[in-house]
Amino acid sequence: MSDVFHKQIELGTCDIVRMAQDFYGYGRWDAPYWFIGPEAGMGKDGKDNLVARYDSWKQLGCAPVVDCEKHHRGFGFTKWHDTTDMAATDSLAFRVSRGRTESR
């Protein structure tokens, strides 16, 4: 059996349920803009699996919201989805149109 399968057994239902209940996504509660979308997809290469995502979330302290880049890098993911790029572009375009280009 694969190492991923064994790690999933070790992970246990309690840990998976905890992540499902307590992890809301990426960013910070006080952010001026929120992007709401579908759940995160998983890669087809097998490295981006629930165990890897849980381990990365745990390394970041199991917080309800975490830094997107740090979480993704924690399970070896470095290429962003087109949806993420479009959301960031839309946000910047909106801020520029409103004269709000300062960084936070």
How would you sum up this structure, described in words?
There is one protein chain. By secondary structure, the protein is mainly α. It has one domain. The chain has helices at residues 3-22, 50-59, 68-74, 82-97, and strands at residues 25-26, 65-66. The protein has a two-stranded parallel sheet with strand order 1-2. Strand 1, helix 2 (50-59) and strand 2 (65-66) form a beta-alpha-beta unit. The longest helix has 20 residues, at 3-22. It is globular, with a radius of gyration of 16 Å. The mean pLDDT is 75.
C-alpha-based Rg, rounded = 16 Å
Contiguous low-pLDDT stretches (5 residues minimum) are: none
Q: Compute the number of structural domains.
A: 1
H-E order: HEHEHH
Alpha-carbon distance between the termini?
A: 47 Å
Q: What is the global morphology? A: globular
User: How would you write the strand order of the largest sheet?
Assistant: 1-2
| Main beta sheet | 2 strands, parallel
**What's the assembly state of these chains?**
single chain
Number of contiguous helices:
4
The proportion of residues in beta strands is: under 5%
Name a few traits of the molecule:
mainly alpha; 2 strands; 51% helix
Topology:
Blueprint: H1 3-22, E1 25-26, H2 50-59, E2 65-66, H3 68-74, H4 82-97
